[in-house]
Amino acid sequence: MTDRITKAVIPAAGLGTRFLPATKAMPKEMLPVVDKPAIQYVVEEAVAAGLDDVLMIIGRNKNALANHFDRVTELELSLASKGDEKKLERVKESSDLADVHFVRQGDPKGLGHAVLRARKHVGDQSFAVLLGDDLIDARDPLLTRMLDEHVTRGASIVALLEVDPASIQMYGAAAVEATDDPDVVRVTGLVEKPAPEVAPSNLAVIGRYVLKPEVFDILERTPPGKGGEIQLTDALMEMAGDVEGTGGVYGVVFRGRRYDTGDKLDYIKAVIQLASDRDDLGPELRPWLTEYVASFDRP
Q1: What does the sequence similarity comment in the record state about its family (predicted)?
Q2: What's the distance, CA 107 to chain centroid?
């Protein structure tokens, strides 16, 4: 396999009910993480890995996503007339990042259905799927490694993260076999949100996938599963058996920094962590945080 993968699919049709009322009129993907919407971090990650053709699967009331990645000529002209080159550059960043396309999911039938909606755009090429709730720190590249493993092994690749066994019921859990690389495993089975006592491992599938195009045929015939939705996990479980010569499924075990912006508490943690690490904010924020935390022990 030598063809370079250029296409990324980002499902972004969810309602974001966990963040109501903030998401009543604003897509959850547009919630700011410091000074950029969460979705921009995801697109930047795709572009950094060489994926410059991005398809977003959206639902109703998601026009803000298209607007964010479009040009805003009047704003650019205003900033240029004021000589504010730094802000002008930041504004233009999102519109110059990638070739971004949009397609409606229509019926909310689950992640597998959202991925299936990308079929016409992707065609018969392998592609990556990035979920917007998972932000991967740019200093700990994951997607590039997954793309390399896809080429080396001729297989679909999922990202795996070791989690507290008590938390595995929040994820898809992978049954795995070791390979010659301690950070790469062969996936032999997947279970969607298992109870801890029956989970095959504490390796959780997180929101990064590199998929062969055969996944589309499998999703076409995959019946609704857990929650009455078409689960991508079910299709991957079938592919793990190397059905129809799909090459199986391998997992890259990620040991870097990941921020979950789909949960309110973890979203707040993500903002604090990323802001603390920035050169322009960290020097003032870190001492304030230290003082603030110390105040918890005061009478």
Answers
A1: Belongs to the UDPGP type 2 family.
A2: 21
Number of H helices, E strands in the chain: 11, 13
Structure token pair of residue 127:
């592609």
d(CA 73, CA 87): 14
Residue with tokens 């045929």: 217
Measure the CA–CA gap between 290 and 295, rounded to whole angstroms: 9
Domain positions in the chain: 7-262, 263-299
CA distance 268 to 260: 9
Residue 21: cis peptide before it, omega within 30 degrees of 0: yes
Q: Are the CB atoms for 193 and 134 separated by under 8 Å?
A: no
228 to each of 113, 200, 224, how far by Cα in Å?
12, 23, 5
β-pairing, 203-211 vs 127-130, is antiparallel
Alpha carbon distance 55, 10 (integer Å):
6
Report the predicted TM-score, pTM, of the whole model to 2 decimal places.
0.91
Phi, psi (rounded to 5 degrees) for 214: -60, -20
Strand 258-260 to 32-33 pairing: unpaired
The backbone region for 9, taken as left when phi is positive above 0, alpha when psi lies in -120 to 50, beta otherwise, is beta
Which two structure tokens, joined as six digits, stand for 12? 């972004």
274-296, pLDDT tens digit by residue?
999 999 999 999 999 999 999 98
N- to C-terminal Cα distance for the chain? Answer: 64
What is the identity of the amino acid at 185?
V
Nearest 5 degrees, angle CA 13-CA 14-CA 19?
Answer: 140
Tokens of residue 105, six digits: 């999911």
| Structural contact between residues 226 and 193, judged by C-beta atoms closer than 8 angstroms | yes
Q: State pLDDT tens for residues 74-133.
A: 888 898 988 888 888 888 888 888 899 999 887 778 899 999 999 999 999 999 999 988
> 217 CB contacts (<8 Å, ≥6 apart)?
244
